[in-house]
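Narrative of activities, Objective 1.

The group set out to show that a structural description can be obtained from nothing but a protein's sequence at a throughput compatible with the screening campaign. Below is one input-output pair from the validation batch, recorded exactly as produced.
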Amino acid sequence: MSAETLTAQEYIQHHLTNLTLGFLPDHGLTFAHNAEEAAAMGFWALNVDSLLWSFGLGYLAYRWMLGVAEKASAGVPNRAQNFFEWIVDFVNENVRGSFSAKNDMVAPLALTVFVWVFLMNLMDLIPVDLIPYAFSHFMGLFGADPHHVYMRVVPSTDPNITFGMSLTVFLLVLFYSFKVKGVGGFAAELTMQPFGKFGMPANLLLEGINLFSKPLSLSLRLFGNMYAGEMIFILIALMYGHNLVLDLSGGVLQLAWAIFHILIITLQAFIFMVLTIVYLDMAHSHH
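Output recorded for this entry:
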């Protein structure tokens, strides 16, 4: 796992490979030993690390917020209650400002999206070698080759996770578009604008692209920003272990990028939340 035993290219490739479970023709159900085997497993392979970390962080947030809610009082709030009340007020203000219809599901959904995406992004601030190194050597106790054990701890750097979340939002958009506008109203929205009934083919093309670009842009924006941030941390980590000057330079760069990255991880969670609210508002709007 360390840069001392791997070349720079191998080190980067190792950090960008997921712990993938899938079927291989000669091995059956197995974990991939390299990126080539992971790609050969095809569509139905599971990135186990992304799934475990995303669901684990979601459950952690759920239990934490539930515990705070159960202990909440009408008197002077403690620090945890005050913190989560601030988050709830922040989300409610954004819902009131961006969502014009009546739907009691939107605010809880926005809160879930913001907290969950933020926690997934927050994992990017953990030193890139810490958890993968510990996990690979733990699996080595059971006979696994540490160089063939992978662990990515930032779920939002996996496009499968970001696409999964954006497709869920997209399905909600379609559901409420049909529910609020009806089949005829939604069809008219896609075919009658912006050029009227005589431009139906062009309208359908433009509105169709606009509709299907929503989940694509929502997922790729989050994935691209977090993937780039992870890559910079990996490149900085390559500076360590050569000489004192590079070690000190790497430490300064890592601290500076981590401080700046706090803004990025918060902003990306905020953008995902706001766009979710806006897309649902558009699904509830009549034209």
